[in-house]
Amino acid sequence: MSILELKNIYKTYRQGKLEVPVLKDISLNVEEGDYCAIMGPSGSGKTTLMNIIGCLDLPSSGEYYLGGQDVLANNDAKLSDLRLNSIGFVFQSFHLLSRQSALENVVLPLLYAGVSKKERLEIGRKALERVGLGDRTNFKPTQLSGGQCQRVAIARAMVNSPKILLADEPTGALDTASGDQIMEIFHQLNEEGVTIIMITHEQEIADHAHKTFHIRDGQFLVPAADNLANEDISTATNDAITENVYSYSYVEHEFDSAGDFIPKESEAVNNESE
Amino acid sequence: MIENIRLSFQGIWSHKMRSFLTMLGIIIGIASIITIVSTIKGTNEQIKQNLIGSGNNVVRLQLYQYDSPYEISYMGVPEGIPLITEETKQEVLELDHVQSASIYNYRNEYNESLYYRNNNLSGAQVFGVESDYFDVTGFTLKKGRNFIESDYTQFRPVMLIDETVAKALFSGEDPIGKTVEFKSTPFIVIGIVEESQKFTPVINSEEDYYTYMSMNQSSGKIFVPNSCWPDIYIFDEPQALAVKAANTEAMAAISKDAATILNRNNTNTQNSSDMGIAETKEASPESESNTIAYKAGDMLQRAKELQDLNNSANQQLIWIASISLLVGGIGVMNIMLVSVTERTREIGLKKAIGAKKKRILWQFLTEAAVLTSLGGIFGVAAGILLSTIMSSVNNVPPSISVPSIFLAVAFSMVIGIVFGLIPSIKASNLNPIDALRHE
């Protein structure tokens, strides 16, 4: 069963009299336990898509089902509940409350969920231990490194045990070593069954995901219908190559025996075409 | 909620200077209101103490015509008024809580009446008293001697005077043994008396009240044995009765019961044709049939009149102080708006991770309310300090009411909620996407 289903999503912003289309006919189907990356250059609409998936923004038209529930039928309070219980957010700039300790930051969603103080602290400590910061509970974000901050943010995102983790450029502000640590944690979470959707513009980071969606000018580079309809996605991709020069960009990555990424033939074609 | 309050304190503490300046308007407003209210109450308390005889607990029953003290005119004694005798005094003494009683005569002299050499005293209260009068009404002998038995039996023309008279008439000379002329009769001054008071009352009786109202200070009092009274005023006059009550609470009951006893044989229905006002008054249904009757001056009523005067004057000040509260409230709103803008990212994040609108609203409302309540508490402290200083400077008893303190803090909390409302609504309506992007 798909945990997340977007159908023909359009999003148009108004700038004065001008209507700016940001997302055009986006359809996306994410299965439970998937690990997806959404790639695209800036201005491609990937953040808007992320906001819609995260129930922070509503599409201009289209359908969105989260765990089988019609998201667009919800009011503001219900959307808050969805964000609280079903989705965990990780941001590029961490968004930690600077005046509060790591532990206080982590337990914030539990506070909103109405968990008692004692339980909050217990769950919060465990969550911090899981990301390897059990000894930093009382540190303020200003006393932590970027990587540590992002781990605190992940602990916060996961503290209500959501099914989906949304990450917007999670390693964008980090050095490689810290980024790798974050990816390691994402990998573990995914192993435990958490569905991860990650936005990035770094190919290296996207490679950690099982699937990559390329977005450009508000559209996925594979026809949406194929993306939804075909069970065997790789076949669909192959078929699409013959029709559309962009359509190969939805790929299943392959690795050689040394673990290095092998570019697909189609991608090489893509590079040539650019 | 507790979490919100904790967060608010954290926020206030992290911006100490700004929070304090924001609170300042509230502090000043609350402090001035507390000071004004306590000054009003203190003045009222002083008026009450002044009027009620401040712990001397003396009820004075005298003749009243309707609501004003009856003054015996040259026309002579009104008809049908019984004199107060030893028997009636005994009856009054048997009432509950009555400690002692003394019969006295009383007149107001408005013209020059008392002479010593070239000095004279215009305006005096003249009392014809029994020797125990001073004990009953709380006078002490400061100098010389009290009236003694033989003064009465031998009708000696002797006189006790108070400090005011001594100063006015003798200007430094020792008055004891000096002969003064009063109403063309020579009297020998035998002593000086002064009122013993707990709270330095200015007003002890109805006469004092009118004196107080007209010149704000006690006029001179002179005392002669009541055996001399007919020498001066020719007639046997209806007297007054001073009754000492055991406590202040009993005074009202004693006034009523004693008046009933004194009026038992009162047959006065005089129309007082010489007084025009009485005509119209008589037509109205009066519970008391007597036009002129013994009555205790209702000092509480008089006190209330003065207090009302005091209140109305000072209540204007409360309005002015309230303006500073309003200004303080606007300051709070201003700072809260700044704070919302400053914390846009925090608000966006909180909304993104699942905080409902209501929670954000409450967080900011709580912060505003905590801020102004703190201001209120500081204001109360400053107000108490200020009114203590004021009362010691103005010599008014300090009077700070506990309910007004709670009211002040509650009111400042309400100010926070009212003026915090707009910023809080603004915060709760922030779009999380824009808020997260805010730098």
Main sheet attributes: strand count, strand direction, barrel closure of chain A: 6 strands, mixed
Q: Structural class of the secondary structure composition of chain A?
A: alpha/beta
- Strand % of chain B is 15-25%
Strand order of the largest sheet of chain B: 3-4-9-6-8-7
SSE order of chain B in H/E notation? HHEEHEEHEHEHEEHEHEHHEHHHHH
Count of runs of 4 or more consecutive helical residues of chain A: 10
Helix- and strand-based class of chain B?
A: alpha+beta
How many beta strands in the DSSP annotation of chain A?
Answer: 12
Terminal-residue CA separation of chain B: 29 Å
Q: Into which percentage range does the β-strand content of chain A fall?
A: 15-25%
Biggest interface in this structure?
A: A-B, 25 and 21 residues
Cα distance, first to last residue of chain A? 37 Å
Strand line-up across the major sheet of chain A: 6-7-8-3-9-10
Number of domains of chain B: 2
How many β strands of chain B by DSSP? 11
Number of helices of chain B: 15
pLDDT averaged residue by residue of chain A? 81
User: Main beta sheet of chain B: strand number and arrangement?
Assistant: 6 strands, mixed, barrel
Mean pLDDT of chain B equals: 80
Helix content of chain B: 40-55%
Estimate the global geometry of chain B from the Cα principal axes: elongated
Describe the protein:
The complex is a heterodimer of chains A (274) and B (439). Chain A has 274 residues and is an alpha/beta fold. Chain A has a domain at 95-161. Chain A contains ten helices and twelve strands. Chain A has helices spanning 46-53, 76-85, 102-112, 117-130, 146-158, 176-191, 203-206, 224-229, 233-243, 265-273, and strands at 2-15, 18-31, 35-39, 61-66, 69-70, 87-90, 164-168, 195-200, 211-216, 219-220, 254-255, 261-262. In chain A, the strands form three sheets. Chain A has a six-stranded mixed sheet with strand order 6-7-8-3-9-10, with helices on both faces. Chain A has a four-stranded antiparallel sheet with strand order 2-1-4-5. In chain A, α3 runs parallel beside α5 and α5 (146-158) runs parallel beside α6. Chain A is globular. Chain A starts with a strand and ends with a helix. Residues 223-250 and 266-274 of chain A have low confidence and may be disordered. By secondary structure, chain B is of the alpha+beta class. Chain B has two domains: 2-50 and 304-437, no CATH class; 89-242, no CATH class. Chain B has 15 helices and eleven strands. Residues 214-218 and 271-288 of chain B have low confidence and may be disordered. Chains A and B meet through α2 and α3 of A and α1, α12, α13 and α15 of B.
